[in-house]
Design goal:
The structure holds two protein chains of two kinds. Chain A is α/β, with parallel strands linked by helices. Chain A contains four helices and five strands, in the order βαβαββαβα. Helices cover 32% and strands 22% of the residues of chain A. In chain A, helix 1 packs across helix 4. The longest helix of chain B has 33 residues. Chain B is globular and about 65 Å long. Chain B is of the alpha+beta class. The chains are: A alpha/beta, B alpha+beta.
């Protein structure tokens, strides 16, 4: 991939039903030109290095608080950095802050929130989770088209 | 009398708290390290087919899943009564080196470097890898890239960065290719430079920590680790050696598969983690340490050029064993150097590319034990199965548990040294951080990736003799 590509990072645990909705979005986006995908259980600081070579990064995450599929810019990260964030799972804001601070990254970061309800233990998406994933993939494609 | 509670302890993997009991004058009388989470993985294993165990055990931990996969696979090898083919064993070694590298990089660069390079008394808001970023972005960048290298090897060979399940009873599930080798070779020069720079820089900083080195877990204990048949540093196979604080060999040539004959576990009501000990010495006299410091103390040599040079220098720090737990950090850096050298060696090992990667057999034994050196120390998996290969009983002896007594001693010693009567009521960040830093020397991994949180606030409760809350300090 060149430095002009879009990196889509799905995070969540597919062994917790709809928490795997983000990974499903990646399946639906597979083969999209100019898009590199990464499926992770949780965000880690090393992703900053991957982000550094992308023009646009899209985080996809299942969100029990979301009412609809939502695409938002990742906010100015500096305000969100906490000293203990890197011991477990940093937020998208913190990973982006690392990419900017460490690698001078100046690209665009967005987050696509997928409304879900069922995060109980077990595999497979609920009907609502599957619909959210499909709408999420559509929303990401639309966003990328508009930016092209 | 008042009691000081630090809960949760930050910048470690898992959930724990520290309780410091103060005397009437406000000085530390005693301190304990409590592990407050309970997981019960051993019970979850019961009824599962043994060939599923490596995949299931991979889920024990998000930081060191490879160790659990390897110990479980080796227990499976024993149940089948086979040795994994040479190519599979090389792969397992490679991924274990990669895991130790990435885990040690996490411990040093992310968790401990802020204390070690910015100082124990730096403001809490700055004392993180993000604070380091402001002062030396290049150093942080190198640390992140180093961990990424280890994770990339795990991902390439094991299929996933976290919870890889490519290894199982009898071998591994995919071949190592020249494409894998070529990518690894592109990373190696940078990895070697990063580790060497970190090691040199850390050694220059060591003089600043004379007090901490002497006061944060410098007591005697036994040391236990795996060594090769020749007595060298070994992570995958070999036998167990135990040395005492004087560096004297207490036991050698112990068969890890018979660990239960020389190790036992004690329990304390105030912690969910048990207290393993060397059986002939009893509890607590037989308490021992494992992990990087122990491995360097039990090994006579490393077996690679740069690591051997560093190991010789390391051993000159003491006439006996290097007993100060603060030197876990230094030992970790030397091990990173060794792992990079071993990974480079393996890239030119033709056996790694072999086509035979799986030994096939049916169940031949009813009991299997597998062990390996995990980043934090020696790991044992022990299963019993029925005639259908279903697990009827499991015991996991985890590295962090084996350091439990030492961590408690370190917290106690640190509290007595730094929470003195003269500083009663002055429970400032530097003091609290030293208590946590004493634990961080061991890089304890108390749980796994099942956490659903990204922030770990520090809450300190100071309670009076009657148990009433007198003061609460919250760090976010």
């Amino acid at each position: 991939m060149t430095s002009r590509h879009t990196l889509v990072i799905a995070f969540g645990n597919p062994l917790r039903h709809d928490d795997g909705a983000a990974a499903r979005v990646l399946e639906l986006l597979r083969g999209t030109e100019g898009v590199e995908t990464r499926d992770v259980q949780q965000l880690t600081p090393e992703l900053a290095s991957d982000i550094a070579s992308a023009r646009v990064v899209v985080f996809v995450d299942a969100d029990v608080l979301a009412k609809t599929v939502r695409i938002e810019r990742v906010q100015s990260a500096d305000r969100y950095i906490t000293p203990s964030a890197l011991t477990h799972a940093p937020s998208p804001e913190e990973v982006v802050a690392l990419a900017r601070g460490l690698f001078g990254w100046s690209g665009v970061a967005i987050i696509c929130a997928l409304p879900v309800r069922d995060l109980s233990a077990g595999e497979g998406l609920s009907r609502r989770g599957e619909i959210s994933a499909r709408l999420g993939a559509r929303a990401v494609r639309r966003f990328l088209r508009e930016r092209a | 009398m008042t009691r000081l509670v630090i809960e949760p302890v930050t910048r470690i993997e898992g959930h724990a708290k520290i309780t410091v009991q103060l005397d009437d004058a406000g000085a530390a009388r005693s301190a304990r390290f409590h592990v407050t989470e309970f997981r019960g993985f051993e019970k979850l294993c019961e009824g599962r087919p043994f060939h599923e165990m490596p995949g299931l055990m991979s889920r024990v931990c998000g930081i060191c899943p490879v160790s659990h996969v390897l110990a479980s696979s080796k227990a499976g090898d024993m149940l089948l009564g086979v040795d994994a083919p040479p190519a599979a064993q090389r792969q397992r070694r490679l991924v274990n080196y990669a895991q130790i590298l990435q885990s040690h990089a996490l411990s040093f660069f992310y968790l401990s470097a802020p204390d070690l390079l910015l100082g124990m008394d730096a403001p809490a808001a700055k004392r993180s890898v993000l604070g380091l970023l402001e002062s030396d972005a290049g150093f942080v960048r190198r640390g992140i890239r180093l961990r990424q290298f280890g994770q990339r090897i795990i991902e390439m060979v094991g299929g996933k960065r976290v919870h890889p399940g490519w290894s199982g009873p009898g071998g591994v599930h995919q071949r190592f290719t020249t494409a894998h080798r070529d990518e690894i070779l592109t990373w190696l020069p940078e990895a070697m430079v990063t580790v060497s720079l970190a090691l040199d820089r850390y050694k220059r900083e060591l003089d600043r920590f004379e007090d901490e080195i002497a006061s944060m877990g410098s007591g005697g204990s036994l040391f236990l680790g795996t060594v090769s048949d020749e007595g060298g540093l070994e992570y995958y196979d070999g036998h167990i050696r135990i040395v005492d604080a004087g560096g004297n060999c207490i036991a050698d040539g112990l068969d890890a598969r018979r660990y239960h004959t020389f190790l036992a576990e004690a329990s304390e009501e105030w912690s969910f983690v048990k207290f393993p000990y060397y059986r002939p010495f009893g509890y607590p006299q037989g308490s021992y340490r494992v992990g990087p410091l122990a491995r360097l103390n039990v090994a006579r040599f490393a077996g690679t050029t740069a690591a051997d040079r560093e190991l010789r220098e390391f051993k000159q720090r003491s006439a006996g064993a290097v007993a100060e737990s603060f030197h876990y950090h230094l030992a970790r850096l030397i091990e990173m150097l060794h792992c990079v050298e071993r990974i480079e060696e393996l890239m030119s090992d033709r056996e790694l590319f072999g086509e035979e990667i799986q030994a096939r057999a049916s169940l031949n034994r009813r009991e299997g034990v597998g062990s390996c050196e995990a980043p934090r120390g020696t790991l044992f998996h022990h299963y019993r199965v029925d005639d259908n290969g279903l697990v009827t009983w499991a015991n996991l002896l985890i590295a962090t548990a084996q350091n439990n007594q030492a961590m408690n001693a370190a917290v106690d010693q640190t509290a007595r040294r730094f929470l003195t009567a003269a500083r009663a009521g002055d429970h400032d960040e530097g003091l609290l951080n030293r208590l946590e830093a004493a634990i961080r020397c061991y890089d304890p991994c108390l749980s796994c990736s099942t956490h659903a949180l990204g922030q770990m606030p520090l809450v300190v409760d100071v309670r009076g003799a009657d148990g009433t809350l007198q003061r609460r300090i919250t760090r976010r």
